[in-house]
Structures are given as C-alpha cells and as structure tokens.
Write a structure and sequence with these properties.
By secondary structure, the protein is mostly helical. Helix content is 76%, strand content 0%.
Length: 88
C-alpha cells in the first residue's frame, strides 16, 4: 500500500484550518469574540465553535482521503482485472 504522506498532511491541514475559520466566522456572526479580554461566556462560546469547526473540518478531510483512496484502489483493481487472461 502506497501513501502520499505530504498530500495527506496538506489535506488534514486545509480541512482543520478551513473548519476552524468557518467556526470563527460563525462565532463572529453570533457576536462571540474569541479575542475578548477575559473568559466570558461569549469568548468561551467562540473558542468552542473554533474547536468544533477545526475538528469537523479534519474529519471531512479524512473522509475525503478515504474516498479518494478507495476510488484509486478500485481503478487499480479494474486495470489489473481487465488485462490479458492467463486462463486458456
């Protein structure tokens, strides 16, 4: 089994950062500032949204990777099974 670790790491990073940014922007829409002074409920709510967004983005990236690996595996299996037959 061959894995491209660079592509896997980049995909994880993009998923995590993208999800965290979506969580941050959702918090901003709700008026929750993660950079507010102190740890009030609005600040904690924003931090939670950033964490959840990052985690969900990472999970989506991993599911996408698994889907790509399965599609690549199916293509490889189709290519080998359509070759010349050894049974004669």
């Amino acid at each position: 089994m061959s894995r491209n670790l660079l592509a896997e790491g980049l995909s994880d990073a993009v998923g995590f950062v993208g999800g965290a940014l979506l969580g941050f922007w959702a918090g901003q829409l709700l008026g929750w500032n993660i950079f507010a002074a102190g740890y009030g409920s609005d600040s904690i709510g924003g931090i939670v949204l950033v964490g959840l967004g990052g985690g969900l983005g990472l999970q989506l990236a991993r599911r996408w990777q698994a889907h790509q690996a399965a599609a690549h595996s199916d293509e490889a299996n189709d290519a080998t099974s359509n070759g010349p037959s050894k049974d004669k």
